[in-house]
Amino acid sequence: MDENVAAALCYLLGVLTGILFLVLEPYNRNPVIRFHAFQSIFVWIAAIVIGMAVSVLAYPIAALPFIGWLIDILLWMVFSLGVVGLWLFLMYKAYNKERFVVPVVGPLAEKQARS
């Protein structure tokens, strides 16, 4: 499999494919694929944590009469579209052999990919 296809597939199922490419030979020795695998894992973990924070924030807002539910739905739509957009963007960049480093988690992925 080509390097760019494997790098894009690291993002396909998030943590699962990230771990898969870190375990499978010969992909686990390729620094580009390792970077994308680690970044995929870290981005999805961050998305889960941010999703929990949105949930904690959205619960009291939803208690507001009428407008609370609208704000709650809007908040979840923005979060969900942001996650899907980031996921597609990262797959696109990886497939086109462009190294996009996501702020905060990207440098951690670079550090892990080198070790």
What is the overall pLDDT average? 92
Radius of gyration: 17 Å
Give a quick account of the main beta sheet: strands, pairing sense, barrel closure.
Answer: none
Number of strands: 0
Q: Which stretches of 5+ consecutive residues score pLDDT under 50?
A: none
Give the CA-CA distance, first to last residue: 23 Å
The oligomeric state of the chains shown is: single chain
Q: Specify the overall morphology.
A: elongated
The helical percent reads over 70%
Give the helices and strands as they follow along the chain: HHHHH
Q: Give the structural class.
A: mainly alpha
Domain tally: 1
What proportion strand?
under 5%
List the total number of helices: 5
Key attributes of the depicted protein:
single chain; 115 residues; 5 helices
